[in-house]
Structure formats: C-alpha cells, structure tokens
Design a protein that fits this description.
Elements lengths: L3 H26 L76 E7 L6 H6 L5 E5 L16 H12 L6 E4 L17 H7 L2 H7 L1 E3 L34 H7 L10 E2 L5 E4 H5 L3 H13 L4 H9 L2 H6 L3 E2 L3 H9 L6 H33 L8 H31 L3 H6 L18
Parallel strand pairs: 1-2, 1-3, 5-7
Antiparallel strand pairs: 3-6, 4-6
Helix pairs in contact: 3-8, 12-13
C-alpha cells in the first residue's frame, strides 16, 4: 500500500487551512473604523464600528421623574462585515429596560417648515427636550443637506450628526399637534401621546411606532411584485413606487421580502443603543439615496415610512397587537384583545350612525344659512329622532369603557397581562374552562 503521497497532501492541506484561518481572523478583528459625522464609508471586508464609550449627549429625563443629562449608552454587539452588505443580517442584542421607576433621558426630533407653528410644544410639553430642523430655512440652526424626502431627510441627518451622543430614547415626531394618524383613543393629540408614552416599553423593545392602529400599513401592505391591475391607487399610492429595484438600491444583497408591513406614519421612538447597533455607514447610504433619487419628493419620503420598522427591528412585517400598544405603551387597558375589539366595534357602529345623522344635520345647517327651513317627511323625521337617540345612548357607554380602560391602566398587574412576553409558563391558565 502506498501511504506517502496521500499523507503529504494531507499535511499541505492542513497548513493551507491554518493559513487561511489566520488571515481571516486578522482581517475581521483588526479593521479600520468609521467616524460619526465624517460621511466617509469604508467598504472593506470585515469592517468593525468603533465600540469605545460614546460621550454624554443632550436629552433629559421623563417629565415628572427628575432631571439629569444623558449618560453614554452601552454600545450593542459590534457589527462585523461589510456595513453595506445588507445580506448580512444584524443580530440585535436583547433590549433590557432599567429597574422600575428609573428615568430615561430622551429627545424629540422635529422636522418643520417655516410656516408650521410649533409653539404648542413649548406650551404643553416644556419638559420634553427637542431639536428642530426647519427644512426650508437656509439660516436655520439645524440644517439638512437638502429639503428633500420629507421627514426622512431630517431623521437620517439627526442620526448621522448625533450617532455618538444619543440619549436613552429618541422620539421622532411631526410638527403638527393634531393629525388623523395620531391615536384615536388619545384624541389624535400628540401632547397626550408624548406625555403618557411609556419609555420602559421602548427600552424593552428597542423600537416602537407611537401609532397603535394597524391601518394603514398592517397586516399585509406592500407587495413589490403586485400586478399593475391590482394596484390600489387611492389607498396605497406608495406601493406604485415600491418595486424590486428600489429595494435593491436601498438594501443591496438583502433578500426580497414577500411583503413589507408596518404601522404608518413615520412617528416612532427608538433607543440610542438600537440605533448604534446599526452601522453608521447604512444611515449615510440611506441619506445618499434620498439625495440622489429621481423619485418625487412626496414618495421618496413615503418609501421610508414603510421601512423604518425594518431598519430598527430587522423584521419586514412588524405589527404589534393594538391593545398591547395602547395598554403597555400608554396605560389604556381594555383587559385583552377581545375586549379591545368589542370596544372598537361599538365605536365603529356609533360612528356610522352619526355619519348618517350628520347628513341630515348638515342639510339643516345649510338651509338655515340661506334663511329657509328643511321640510322632512314623516319617515325622515322618524329616522332622525331614531339616530339621535341611538347616538345619545351609545356615547356615555363608550365613555364609561374608555374611563375603565384608563383606570385599569394604572394597575401594574393589569398592564403586565396585556404586555408581550416569551414565556409559556402560565399559558394553560388562560385556556377556556369546560362547563
């Protein structure tokens, strides 16, 4: 039997493998790093971000819980690899909230135009620190490279410029106080949302959309391969622009998701730690796309509206339970998903009745302005009285349910019951009892 040549080949192979391993380890463990705010990206293989402690930054504690400056957050697991190879998924570290009762430094990032009035912020939430970007003012204190891409340009610019000095929580909000996309159970009022926002939930999740209602955006929204004849030009105008080549420009190397689904409308909170677990080069890359795309400004901003959740969670579909968002996020607890659904069904029924009644009321108001009186027939008169009676009966019932939900939200145990958890320890306690 000839044993010599095979043994020699084996030794050469082993030596070669050891050499390759030594080369790879040196490449991965000793790369150059990118500097925050430099706008320079090193695309070499095995790039690491600088994981030295970040300097303390601005921000303040949650209103009513004390004062203090932001302390440097611990950096998450350093990213290894080409930061612009989106085929390498980021494995975010498990978020951990501070002990109950702790304070969270935070700042609110606000994009606005010169004509928008934000005096309500100083008046209603003076303890919430903010940084404002007046995008159409060349003399603004905080500037963006170009007024393009709506709020996305502001959000990305803030992150790039403050990457190394972020507070515990960064809250990205619009300039208007009242908006259709704000939470209905909070009067669509940004003030109520900001004042009651649970920073502990943000710390536990890493990212939270401040809107609780799923539509628009969830549970099944953007499809990049949808046939042209199936587009909904009214309900989902952004989907027309969300095609495969756009995804590949934004996320080169990443698999094409079957669906992109996340709650609208570009108002959210994210931890400083979560932001810094994403390579700075990626935020620079996103902003460069905004600056160079030929897409209409309105829709380039809408493109980002449906990927913020992907950027900060890694999930193409991210649709938290609405009742959990309200309960754990704001302290409005209906006692479970079914109770929340039942309330919304009642509210929808009431709204439909009121819409029908309002048609009659508007005709009466219009006639009064013209100095005349509407003559209703007997059937119409009967229906108007019926509608008024039903709405009058339902309003106090709905108010009672809302007040009970607010009261239930003050109970830590009740809030815990509606909060996401990974444990199956007590799962059988919730199984319906027979008989």
């Amino acid at each position: 039997m000839l044993a010599g040549p095979p043994r020699l080949l084996s030794l050469v192979s082993v030596a070669l493998l050891f050499g390759l391993a030594w080369w790879y380890l040196n490449l991965v463990q000793n790369p150059p790093t990118a500097t925050a705010g430099s706008g320079v990206s090193n695309n070499g293989a095995g790039l690491n971000l600088d994981t030295s402690p970040a300097p303390a930054g601005g921000g303040a504690t949650k209103p009513g819980t004390g004062t203090g400056k932001a302390k440097p957050l611990p950096i998450g697991r350093p990213y290894q690899g080409d930061p612009l190879d989106f085929g390498i998924a980021i494995r975010f570290t498990e978020p951990v909230a501070k002990p109950p009762g702790s304070t969270y430094s935070h700042i609110m990032v606000v994009p606005k135009t010169m004509k928008e009035d934000i005096t309500w912020m100083d008046r209603e939430i003076p303890d919430t620190p903010k940084i404002v970007y007046e995008v159409d003012n060349p003399d603004a204190e905080n500037k963006v490279p170009q007024n393009k891409g709506r709020e996305a340009m502001v959000y990305l610019t803030y992150i790039i410029d403050h990457y190394d000095k972020l507070p515990d929580t960064v809250l990205f909000m619009h300039a208007h106080r009242f908006a259709w996309h704000n939470n209905i159970l909070q009067g669509q009022d940004s003030v109520r949302m900001i004042k009651s926002l649970n920073h502990e939930r943000i710390a536990r999740l890493g990212y939270m959309n401040v809107r609780c209602h799923h539509e628009p955006g969830c549970p099944d929204w953007i499809h990049m391969d949808r046939p042209g004849g199936d587009f909904d030009f009214f309900k989902k105008p952004e989907e027309i622009h969300w095609r495969r080549h756009i995804w590949e420009e934004l996320h080169p190397g990443a698999p094409i998701p079957p669906s992109l689904s996340g709650v609208c409308c570009a108002q959210f909170a994210v931890t400083g730690d979560r932001i810094r677990q994403i390579p700075l080069e990626r935020f620079i890359h996103y902003r460069k796309w905004l600056l160079t795309t030929t897409m209409d400004d309105q829709f380039s901003g809408r493109i980002f509206e449906y990927i913020w959740h992907y950027i900060f969670t890694g999930h193409e579909v991210y649709c938290p339970a609405q009742n959990t968002c309200y309960c754990d996020g704001y302290g409005i607890c209906f006692g479970g998903r079914q109770n929340y659904t039942d309330y919304n069904d009642k509210q929808d029924e009431r709204n439909k009745l009121f819409e029908e009644l309002d048609v009659y009321q508007k005709k009466e108001a219009e006639a009064e302005k013209e100095g005349r009186k509407v003559e209703w027939d007997d059937r119409q008169k009967k229906r108007i009285e019926e509608l008024r009676g039903l709405v009058h009966k339902m309003d106090p019932e709905l108010e009672r349910l809302r007040n009970e939900a607010l009261e239930r939200g003050k109970d830590a145990k009740a809030r815990q019951e509606e909060t996401e958890n990974w444990s199956s320890e007590k799962i059988w306690e919730y199984m319906p009892k027979n008989g």
